[in-house]
Amino acid sequence: MNFPEKSQLKRVVELALKEDIGTGDITSEISVGEDIKAQGNFIAREDIVLAGLPVVTEIYNQISPDISIEPYFSDGNEINKDKAIMAVKGNARDILSGERVALNFLQRMSGIATATSIYARKIEGTGAILLDTRKTTPLLRIFEKYSVFVGGGKNHRFGLYDQFLIKDNHIAAGTSDFETDIKNIVEKARNFRPYCKIEIEVDTLDQLKKVLNAKPDIVLLDNFSIENLKQAVFIAKGKVFLEASGGINLDTIREIAETGVDGISVGALTHSARSVDISLDIEICPTKK
Fold first, then answer.
1. Which of 167, 197, 209, 210 is catalytic?
2. Catalytic residue at 255?
């Protein structure tokens, strides 16, 4: 996926800078000379997969157009511990004013990309696709899903608007006869948004058999055992995309992938990924005489 459109990136960064800087960086104003020039180097303090360079660029562009940024890597690159990620050059006060906001985004987004990369490597060679979820930080979904993408995962639906997902609560609230009403819901969905995929969540193999007759695009197998996942693959016979979901972690994902399911959605990619360790080291540039 492409990075968020410029207007969205600009607005989020504006709010983040306003939150942190407010009326001014009072510590830098009293401790750093107004005309001091410096270079800041962002350093990976552990092995990471990088994500967030466009955000850092936008942060410093908003602080001052005179700040220059020199990246040494691109988003999606693996970076070893103690390697420099990028250099930021310009007014020392300006660099310091953007430090925390830049690090917050860079550490969070790279943390998601790094976690995604670890999960993706676990299922290499199985044919299963690693999917993300809507379990994201409010207002930062596009940033977090971008981080999943550069880390080697695939973005699932972005919101309630771009793909149907008929879950157990929808069924409980709107159906009486499961099989008949599921067919009616799928038909309504196809007529309502013919360009949107239709996914249905099932809890049992019996539900799966009934759902297949409605011909959805995707069936979500919620908290199925390994044996039931294998049975589901056998029953579906490739007629529909099967997505496994529910409590999946690094210890279980390989075995799940080997059942033959088409995709595995992991909420932990975004809701539980830790921020990685990145620091900003600043050096004062020598004054020319």
1. 167
2. no
